[in-house]
Amino acid sequence: MARSGLFGMAGLSHDVTQFAIGLVRAPFPRNTRPARVTGGPLMLKRLAAAAALALTAGAASADPVEGMWKTEVDDGAYAIVRMAPCGAKICGTIARTFNSGGEYKSPSIGKALVWDMEPQGGGAYANGKIWRPSNDKVYKSKMQMSGDNLKVSGCIGPICLGQNWTRAR
Questions:
Q1: Can you list the alpha helix ranges (DSSP code H) found in 61-128?
Q2: For the chain, does the N or the C end have fewer beta carbons within 10 angstroms?
Q3: Are both 71 and 129 inside the same structural domain?
């Protein structure tokens, strides 16, 4: 009688199904020894340690520019920008806005301010774009991070203007 075997496929005999999933081993010639069987509790401990290391490495590999940054005052207002990965690049969105009266709900909240920044190593980022809300223009951009300071520049051709942002706490 045929059974429903590997992955529910009807027609495979029980022996073929067991062989396919590795439960039946071929006999060894009498004059040879089987290979040493590995595994057991020690192997499970090693596997668990490797999995834990892989998970913590992902958290530790966060880009150092990620987080909240305070911009300089531009046209009477400043913002807190949330920098985060967007694929393999870095992007920044406006999280909060402030003016001389304190925090206010700007229509710019939630909009991208910086995008497509490519990490270059050594705290440098290039080939990105930056939007200047005060004149609604987009510029080519680059950034340079040093500790809790981020030099952000918007460029037209060879001429670049910039701001020094500080990490928001």
A1: none
A2: N
A3: yes
